[in-house]
Specification:
This protein is of the alpha/beta class and 544 residues long. The N and C termini lie far apart (105 Å). The strands form five sheets. An eight-stranded parallel β-sheet has the order 8-7-3-2-1-13-12-11. A hairpin with a 2-residue loop joins strand 14 and strand 15. The radius of gyration is 27 Å and the shape is globular. It is built from 16 helices and 21 strands.
Amino acid sequence: MLISMMNKIILSLVFLFLMGDIYCQQNVFDTDIPLAPAEYRRPDGYDPVSYRYRYSLSDLKDKFSKEMMRNAKGVYDKVMRVNCSGKWKPTRMSIDQHVAPEWFEDSKFGMFIDWGLWSVSGWAEKTKGAMYPDWYEFHLYNHSSFMKYHEKNWGKGFERDDLIPLFRAENYQPEKIIDIAVEAGMKYVIPFSKHHSGFCLWPSSFTHRDVGNMLGKDLIAPIVDCCKKNGLKFGFYFSTDEWEYPVIDQDGMLKIRKWGGHYEPYNPIQEGRTSGKIAVTDFAKDYIIPQAVEFIDKYDPDILWYDGEWNAPVELLGSYDISAYFYNQAETRKEVAVNDRYGLENGKRLRSRRGDFFTSEYGDMSDDNRIRHAWEECRGISQSYGFNWQDTDENIISSKEFIDMFVDIVSKGGNLLLIVNLDAQGALPEIQEKRLKDIGRWLKINGEGIYYTRAYSTPVEENIHYTRSKDNKTIYAISTEWPGRKLQLVSVKPAKHSEIYMLGVERPLKWNHKNGITTITIPKSLQEVSNRPCDFAYTFRIHQ
């Protein structure tokens, strides 16, 4: 009996030890998942059930689908008429004839406003490369670290669409945002008008999943007005695909169209992920094309910036139809531009093959497509696509790195579309505002070597980046490091008796050309840091 009791005690102790070890391991694991600051996790007392959208997908279908598809047909028929009679046709051959307008290549610098429902959570798993908080709404169902983070900070049963009532835009100041864009030297602005969840930042007639129906606001109109007042171009960011969308099959039953054009049976679990979406029979003709055209007609953008195209054939997204309409409605009135994210053609992605300008994302485009075609780099001040409460000085590029990157892009013939990440209520983080003001100060002195320039025959020579004027008479050599007493250039020969200036310095600099090398003498007075015209990247104007 005593031995039996001793065995039980030993077994109990072993069990408690093992459970304690498991508990400790679980706690160690949990510490890897951060607890967000209070403003970026579930508010105390917030009951998402009481805020959920009043219509189910079935109710929306019964109440609104027929009317919406009737209205969509009217818009689609108009698109067909305009494209039939207009210069531009919804075909590859016609679209390929359009080129980027001169103003786009002159502009060099734009603001990409990455803002939406994901900004409420404001988190992505830390990586060495780019981080994507703006995919939080998708990853919270599909990615283990996001799922664990979401459960810890928002709780079980908290759906994607339960973020909608918390996206109130209370600190949204479009005038201030555009003032900062102007101060930074930006020439165009593109807000994320509709990202992949289908939530629209304007009141759309082709969904209830928008700020008009759900928040009683229009977040796009004031940005458009501010751009016009300040002479900035305005762009329409539009995802042509969505993570989920309800469709009506031949039997009148609901199905769910998934990303890329795959279909699944309707499941009630989708209700918390697709609130306000009105089922249609044809995703492109009844929804994507009419919605895009509605925006174009209402806000008259200068740029159409497609996204979300990489898994679906171009025919299923309607992007040729939309682009042709966009070109035709602007023809003889103003010049417009469309990017390269059209969809798949013969199973191949059209990025960097089609479009007025090609797009590179955190440097993912090869050098082969640069210089020969208008292009644009889109990346953030930080590593994050979308607001990330984890951003600190450690993953925000310095002002010098920022300017060096910008100079490198422009020297290769590109524009920089810089991502700024508004927080949940629409405020621009102070650290991002500071970087924008830094580059604005630099551009006030060095902008002559940036705006209205084109790529030189030799874009880069060690730490020297070249640009040229459009008439090819002036070369700008931008040194990303202080040259010291002399700057030596191999790739440019100044015109005889011409004067060379450092931008921001009134007097010309002495120079000579010997044995194929141009040597510019930097005066002693400029060796003092306080006497230099700027803190980073020094621009020299050379006539040839």
